[in-house]
Each structure stands twice: as structure tokens, then as C-alpha cells.
Amino acid sequence: MRGKTAGCRVNYGYPNTERLRLPLAPASCHLGSRPFMKSGHVPRLSSTTLYVFSNSVTVFTMSSSGPQRRFGMSVFSDASQARLTDILAVKILENPAVFICDIQEKFRNAIFEFDKVVLTATKLLRASSTLAIPVFVTTQNSAKLGDTVAELQPYLTSSPSNLNNSKIIIADKTRFSMWIPPISSHIPSSPQIEAVIVGIESHICVTQTALDLLSAGHKVYILADGVSSCNREEVPIALTRLREAGAVVTTSESWIYECMGDAVIPEFKGIVSLVKDTSGDTKKALQGLLGPVSKI
């Protein structure tokens, strides 16, 4: 529901809130009700500003259309103020999870632009560590087809050297789908997760994993710059099928920013640094896997 107050757009209620880790004091601005409520007069707001009206607090953020009301509440006690800190930070995705599907050395020379898939998977693993997103990794019959490629191995341990904050589950399989008991047993049916899938092959293991996750009631994202097949022509067909089945086809950078949702979160600077650091790899992956003008 939306309305208008004092010349600015207002949002009543904001979904998918979670704990704010930033201190409130630096962003606070005690104005009283008079200056803001004057018709036609809206003070310039910082990215997140608290406006205090007597015993109430209203939170505004800037958007392209002007200041936007995100939350309002009465403040009478320390408990109320603690509740405010708990609900200010907003992330679009509440329960993201990363699925790395069968990126094994045996497939390197068989898969179209295999190295580009590895680049995107590496970026996703680094982002998962920064954002503390759980990671699920599979190999297909590793006794015959080998382990996950060496480039990803440093990000699949919890050693202090790589500062990995993610929960990582690794499983071998013979099924094509990643939705096997060693994986599914770690994922509750409710609340739903927002699973992002990278790996190979688009039309086989990636497709069957996505369909199983959708059937289990979860939301699924497929990264177009992170999946491939032996025959490149299989990829757009698989992505079209998965989109029609209910999956979201997007890119790694878009998904990572969707996981954050708001630049106020403390991990934002780390992600910006990662995006800058991997900008060249991102371009290579997009151009290699999607081509100059993609119809995906």
C-alpha cells in the first residue's frame, strides 16, 4: 500500500527485514515534526536517516523518486529501540544458498567455455564467504570423473587463511540432480530458500537440480554467466525451459546485489571490492557464455 505525505512517496510496511548491524546514532537526525511535515518541504536525506518525532521514529531512504518511508514506530523504551535496530536493514533474499554443480577437471576440455564457468563460480564462492551464504557442492561420480577443479578448492574449506564464513556441504553423486539426501537433509522445507545454481551441464544436471528444487517449493535462480554444456546450443534451450518452469535467469552480479538489497549492510564494502576485483573476469564470462548480443 502506498500513499503520499508532505510531497514524498510513502511505503507502509516493508517486507523481508532482518537485523541491522550498523549503529543508529550516526544516522539519527532529531528534527521534531514541524520542518518535515510542512507541505512541499522535504529536507535532503542521507541514504538512511532516522527522523524522530517526539516519541516516534520514522526511517527514510533515498530513491530515484525522492525520500521513501521505510518504517515507523513508537519509541517508549530501550526494548522498543532494540526492536527498531532489529528490523531496519532490508535484504531482498532472506535465505540464499549457492549450488555448485559438477565443476570437475574431467570436463574441462569438453564443456563450452568451461574456464568462464569457473570464473563465475569463483566469484560466487567469494561473495558467499563475505555474505555468510551456505554453499552446496557436488561432483558426479568422482571416482571416475575426478574432484572439483583446483581453482575452486581454496574456497571449499573453512581454514582461517581464506576467511570462509559460509557453511559448505560437499557431496558426490551418481544422480544427475544435486537434490540428493546429503544435500536436501541440510535444507528445511520451510522457509523456502533462494537457490542459485552454477555449473554443468545446463540441460542435464543443472536442469534436473533446478526442477527438483522448484518441486520442493524453493525459489531458483540460474546464472547465465555461470552455466554451460558440451554443445553451446543446448544452453539457451535449457534456460528457456527453466524460465518457463519458474526459475529466474539472471547474472552473477545481479544476484549478488539482490542478496544484499541495501548498501547500509556492513558487508557492502567487501562486495563492492569483490565486484571491482573481478570486473575483468565478469566481462570475460558474459562475453564468452552469452556472446555480444545474447537472446537468453
From TrEMBL:
Q: Which organism is it from?
A: Apodospora peruviana
Name listed for the protein in its UniProt record: Isochorismatase-like protein
Q: Which domain of life is it from?
A: Eukaryota
Domain Isochorismatase-like: from-to ranges: 97-253
- Which PANTHER family does UniProt cross-reference here? HYDROLASE (PTHR14119), ISOCHORISMATASE DOMAIN-CONTAINING PROTEIN 2 (PTHR14119:SF3)
- Please report which protein family the annotation says this sequence is part of: Belongs to the isochorismatase family.
Which Pfam families does the entry mention?
Isochorismatase
